[in-house]
Amino acid sequence: MDEKTEQLRDIFVDVAGEETVTERQQEGRGSLSDGDDERIAQRLIEVIEDMRERYDFETDCDDRTLAAIVRGFYEGESDGTLAEKLDLDPETVFRARMDLQLVDDSDADAPFSMATLRDLLAEDADGETIAAELDADRETIERFSRVAAAQNRARRTSHRFRTAFEEVLTDVDLSIQLTEGVKEDGLEDATEDIETDLSM
Q: Where is the region Disordered (predicted)?
């Protein structure tokens, strides 16, 4: 390689800390290493363990699976997609999300008033009574009852656990952005310097 190419290669090694770009090309911009993934999983599991101390979970998913569901939820993956990835059925993923208090707007899009459902649940009305009152089948009532229960639990703790999940994932995003920014800025500055030196 010529002198300029050699110097640029040396700059890349100094800034990126690696001899080739192969690994980073494979990972893609803003991606995480296996070590980063494990640290994120462990931090999410810590939050999940705190939740288990306070609540009884309906599903028997282990904490690592639940952590993957948290990640997938915030990455916009559907219950069906997560079910396929985690070898579960969509209903189990849905119930796990409710255990984790991860309710999105579409979950509460009921064919009846959620406020009325909450009132009936507060009165300890049985499923048959609720179904008759809201003119809905038992399966639909059970699904939206889980949504209402998850929303109620989240409100009682001021969304503490959802906030904790989001803090973990926000910290990760910021870390990636800062790391990538430092490397790009360093490489750009160093490249400009060497090009100036060579032109002189």
A: 15-37
Residue 199 structure tokens: 């032109």
Task: State whether 50 and 88 are in the same domain.
Answer: yes
Residue 191 lies in a domain: no
Measure CA 50 to chain center. Answer: 17
Quote the number of domains for the chain. Answer: 2
The pTM is what?
0.72
| Runs of H (alpha helix) within 100-137 | 114-122, 127-134
Residue 101 in contact with residue 77, Cβ under 8 Å? no
Structural domain includes residue 193: no
- Identify whether residues 94 and 138 lie together within a single domain: no
Which residues, at least 6 apart from 183, have a Cβ–Cβ distance to it below 8 Å? 15, 16
56 & 138 share domain:
no
Cβ within 8 Å of residue 13, ≥6 positions away: 19
Model confidence at 170: pLDDT above 70: yes
Mean pLDDT over 122-132 rounds to 94
For residue range 141-160, list pLDDT tens digits in order. 999 999 999 999 999 999 99
